[in-house]
Design goal:
Blueprint (H helix, E strand, L loop, with lengths): L6 H22 L6 H8 L3 H7 L3 H26 L4 H18 L1 H8 L3 H7 L2 H23 L9 H11 L6 H4 L1 H19 L4
Length: about 200
């Protein structure tokens, strides 16, 4: 029998599932977490969980999107702090982004468990398409911001945006690069990109 819940009650349940799901994902990753695991931890029925999310992977994706928003907020703060020096702002954006992604505990757990490909097959296609489209639009607008403030416009903004998005995959291979070499390597990469794109004259 389906219980009746008001919109505010369902919102509260969804928020609780978000927080509890995040705790479990940080501990166990995604593949080894079921809907029943999260529902039981949250003290609700599987049926109620399914009224809020179509599956555990969908909940994980929502948690990941929230992490993405925090990530972007951090980049926007860096830009605001260096608004009078776009070159320094760009350098800090590239370097900090590499460090934030590598240190994000949720991303680290997924990488450690080798669950990237699993997620790509489990998250609904339309969700992925919406996410990747939004990601591309964000980084294109970011590039355009810097191109209007001294960055070379030789490379079209959408192409350079895709280059940045490709760079931000590098942290997924941090273990292959090596813990000691990672930070200095990313600093060097950020410097090379910045000097190349902010040419004098």
């Amino acid at each position: 029998m389906t219980e009746n819940y008001s919109e505010s009650e369902l919102k509260a349940v969804k928020e609780a599932l978000y927080e509890n799901g995040k705790k479990i994902f940080l501990e166990r990753g995604v593949k080894n977490v079921s809907v029943a695991d999260i529902a039981d931890f949250s003290g609700i029925s599987v049926e109620l969980f399914n009224r809020c999310f179509p599956g555990s992977e969908a909940l994980f994706f929502e948690v990941l999107e929230a992490e993405e928003r925090l990530f972007r907020d951090s980049l926007e703060q860096l830009i605001a702090e260096n608004k009078d020096n776009p070159k320094i702002a760009f350098f800090n954006v590239i370097n900090t982004a590499m460090q934030l992604i590598a240190k994000n505990p949720l991303i680290k757990k997924v990488i450690e468990n080798g669950e990237i490909e699993y997620l790509m097959t489990k998250i609904p296609k339309e969700h992925l398409e919406k996410y990747f489209t939004g990601d591309k639009e964000y980084f294109t607008s970011l590039v355009e911001y810097f191109q209007h403030r001294g960055m070379s416009g030789d490379i079209p903004a959408p192409i350079l945006a895709n280059t940045l998005r490709t760079l931000f995959i590098i942290p997924f291979f941090k273990d292959n690069i090596g813990e000691e070499e990672y930070e200095t390597s990313m600093l060097a990469l950020a410097k090379i990109m910045t000097e190349g794109l902010f040419r004098e004259g």
